[in-house]
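Problem: given the chain below (117 residues), write out its structure.
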Amino acid sequence: MRITREYKRNLEKDNQFYIELGKKLKQARLSKVHKFSGKSFIVTQSAVAKAANTTFQQIQKYEKGINRIPLINLIKIAKFLRKPLSYFLSDYDNEDSIAENFNIAFQNEIELLGEQE
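Solution.
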């Protein structure tokens, strides 16, 4: 299959979305505040991985933007860190851009599945 310029451009935008999402994940993990003492502490990647039913290596890859975060894992992580999903997506201008990024990611996954068959 020949890769077009438009496909590359969409892929770069898609990757940037996941890189930013990973940065927000790391920021949320490092800025956890204890609910009784009010002191901040660090939640380990292992603890987050256990909550998301994955490995700490996978969490590392999410934070670096190497791997894409599946929506179900993002929901589990957000629930574990007690952050709303909007916390992870707040850097985007409006809901349309968020939906567009997810749609692009979904289309890329469909295309990859089609290529594998």
